[in-house]
Write the structure tokens for this entry.
Amino acid sequence: MKVLFPATHYYPVIGGIETWTKNIAEGLSKRAEVFVVTGKIKDRPKEETINGVKVYRTSLFTLTNLSASPLFYTLSLLPFVFFKSLKIIKKENIDIIHCQGFLSSLTGFCLSKITKAPYIVTVQRQEKRGNPLKEFVYRQAVLCIGASNAVKEYFKRIGAKNIEAIPNGIDLEKFENVEKKSHEGFVVMTVARLEKVKGVEYLIKAFDELRSNLSKEKFDPFKLSIIGDGSERKNLEGLAKELGLENKVKFLGEIPNDNIPGYLAEADCFVLPSLREGFGIAILEAQAAGVPVVGSKAGGIKELIEDGKTGLLVEPCNPEALAQAILKIYHGQKFAKPDLGKYNWGNIAEKVYEIYRKIL
């Protein structure tokens, strides 16, 4: 079996969809020949084999900042990825094209029309209705995979043919030996792209709520660490300064994924306040590290947290509710450890392989 992933971004670019693509591609490489065609990245060769996956990089521009991909870079690489993929499909007799998100799926649709190779779509985030082209492209796929039941419902609403819900995963081994690090105060942490949809502004405002409702002495232990980067970073830094919280809020920037367990070892509470969320892998990582979690009632997060049992759920865009949830954890509310076995990458890759077999 030969599989092609036409990907707008691939490792070492790290995000939800990039992590899924990398782990599935590497897991499949034990059972199939896997090819990835993606854009050029600074200091990476045009062709390389990474853990059994043959990676080809082609684009007009070269991405230098792995935390932020300009729209012009993404759009300009599409014709390059298309023609390189077309060449590989014909040369290697590719059996299946596996696409990630809309632009990759649009590329897969065009490739499938020319080569007759079937294409599959994977979507990680909650999409909005109302894009006729996007919905048409998804409907034409032989199968659509959603990262959660929330995404699966989206596919149902647009009339997609065959639909599966297969979650994102985590490398549980990275968290097996995570030990809590001694530190001063009570550290609240989030790991997220700094974009509006992630709702980090409401977490900062929740600290303003805590300060308003606690004495100076009781508020003093609270600290907020924000891991991630994005277009909203300057606005969020400005908000923290405007609220007089610049000494309470630390922006740590983009951290390599392999280093995240070490940072989570310093956290006393983890919060993901997203407005929309297809899955919420950061919640899984915090749970694997043994950190109490708070998440908004948005998309896939609701499937990862059993409210009051494995963590706390609050309404999106609600600083007051976030502040109250953080206080509950600060005062010692305990939670059961969730069963994370089903999020093992090996098991997930095996599910995808079985889907390929059924399609072929």
About this structure: The first strand starts at residue 2 and ends at 6.
